[in-house]
Amino acid sequence: MNKATLLELLASVERGATTTDAAADQLASQFAKQPFEDLGYAKIDHHRPSRHGLPEVIYAAGKTPEQTAGIFARMAASGVDVLATRADSATAEAVLAVAPTATYNPVARAVTLRQSPDAAQRGHIAIVCAGTSDLPVAEEAAVTAEIFGVRVTRLYDVGVAGVHRLLAVRDQLSAANAVIVCAGMEGALPSVVGGLVGVPVIAVPTSVGYGASFGGAAALLGMLNSCSPNVCVVNIDNGFGAAYTATLIARAAQKA
Fold this sequence. Notes:
Layout: H1 3-15, H2 20-32, E1 36-38, E2 43-45, H3 48-52, E3 58-59, H4 65-77, E4 82-85, H5 89-98, E5 103-105, E6 110-113, E7 124-129, H6 135-147, E8 151-155, H7 163-167, H8 170-174, E9 178-183, H9 189-194, E10 201-205, H10 217-224, E11 231-233, H11 239-255
Parallel strand pairs: 3-4, 7-8, 7-9, 9-10, 10-11
Antiparallel strand pairs: 1-2, 4-6, 5-6
């Protein structure tokens, strides 16, 4: 039972459509269940939505296509929205075989299944990337935020080599509750964005650049040393982690 279904149950009691005894039985049944499902090769945390407000996410890299598909199917059966990140085409094919209504985004390398009822989006995130080479990480962030019910504005290819491109979308940046900035090379873009907006900026170093970029380490260090005080940093290529945190920020801003 996630927060949405719990609220639906409480509303049903309030309307008189469900008796308090029936509601108590449903709650007792839910909480009597083991908080995870053991598949032998994975233990699915079905109670995570009740604790975090967001379901568990499948990290497909390192898993076989069959393992990812098995986890995806069981999560889908529980009724939550499902996301598998870092999924290659073989994994996506296996998942779509067990969940035909799921969607694969090959740029983001993500498979998603939306099952929650349509509702107003909670919060607004702008996702910025310096160049087209950063798109896989930026799209991973965008797909993650969208499956979690956040409105996403994509602002791509606006790096510091042509800073006028960034200034042209300043109004769109300022409208967001949080901004994710993905950049490789020297990683300067988050500092510039941080100086333009009054919201949290989550910097994502990408493994894009020539030899001295050291696979994103140069961008990571540059972002960690940002002089913009509203910039925080996640790990190299971690678009998912940036989006998860930005989603929580955006939701909190909507409640305020």
